[in-house]
Amino acid sequence: MKRQKYFHKLTFGRHNATFAVLGVALVATASWSFVKTYGAGDGGAFQTTPAVISEPEKPKHIKTPEPVKAIYMTSWVAGTKDWRRELVEFVKKSEINSIVIDVKDYTGRVSFNTGNQKVKEFGSEEMRVGDMKDFIETLHDAGIYAIARIAVFQDPFYAKKHPEIAVQKKNGAVWKDKKGLSYLDPGAREFWDYIIEVAKASEAAGFDELNFDYIRYPSDGNMSDIMFPVSGKRNKVEVMSEFFAYLSNALSDLPVPISADVFGMVATNPDDLNIGQVLESIAPHFDYVSPMVYPSHYPPGFQNYKNPAAHPYEVVRFSMNKAVERLSAPTSTPSKLRPWIQDFDLGANYDASKVRAQIQAVYDSGLTSWMSWDAGNKYTRDAYTSDP
């Protein structure tokens, strides 16, 4: 049932008696309802009855499936009805039960009309998906779990508007990575608040989970010419941990889980990889943690493999075994782990057997959930059987 708010009753004094005698109906706004009343001794004053204003109906959510088996969908595909319809039909016929959709991607633009005043005022909305709420309802009608992907600190749009809190070169210019993309300083709390507004708007649109990516310091540009105007030389793990705690607390009242995407080697490395990500410091603040264990992204020599991409089962199994071991401590739980696997060609031809090998490695590490990434949204259809 919609929650309702009531306005306080206002009484118009004797100077309105003329209107009462004439029976003139007063209408102030669409939100107010004025009714003529005749009270003893009040000269026939007009009074307001309690006017009812309904808040927007709360979105309906799907409970997190056990297990989650997801594919990724760009915002552009989500806004292309024929393409998204074809992908949804594929999902219905497969074992997949969830779709991760870009709300805010590497450009920093928000992909739909959020209805959130603060987001609108900032001007980051770009109407790539004109019917996001309706699309999510369509997914729900098919029993498909909808996950909102929000790229955080990689945000050229925000950095251009607020270069004073962007990651900078030592000369004060905005720093860019190898792809020409800029980042916000992870210590910038005003940006944290903006991300929280985007997240809340995503839940209000109907998304069943909020997934945060690029929750880290940059890693692949000219690292010898980089400066952080807000966090300075503070410990990166401490800065990121403060952000994780702030985010988790701010979203704790929402009825949906939150999840974190992390570097694949976060599963195996005890240090922070110089990006502020340590598995044990991330897990307490999120319902799910997703190491991106794409075999093609591991360096030559990893586990003595000349080309890790050619060994999908071994790389994913080793990585997730280590992550499970680390999160088996009393303060956390391995069930939070939900890795990203790859369905794209890089370093090797990823046919159905290689995609399936990764999925089997996830299962053999004692886990049940996974998400599959293909930036082109093509997907190897034979890899996702309807009855695995």
From TrEMBL:
Domain DUF4015: 70-379
Pfam families: DUF4015
InterPro entries, sorted: DUF4015, GH
Bilayer-spanning residue ranges: none
Entry-linked Gene3D superfamilies: Glycosidases
Coiled coil spans: none
Name of this chain's protein: DUF4015 domain-containing protein
Lineage: Bacteria, Candidatus Giovannoniibacteriota
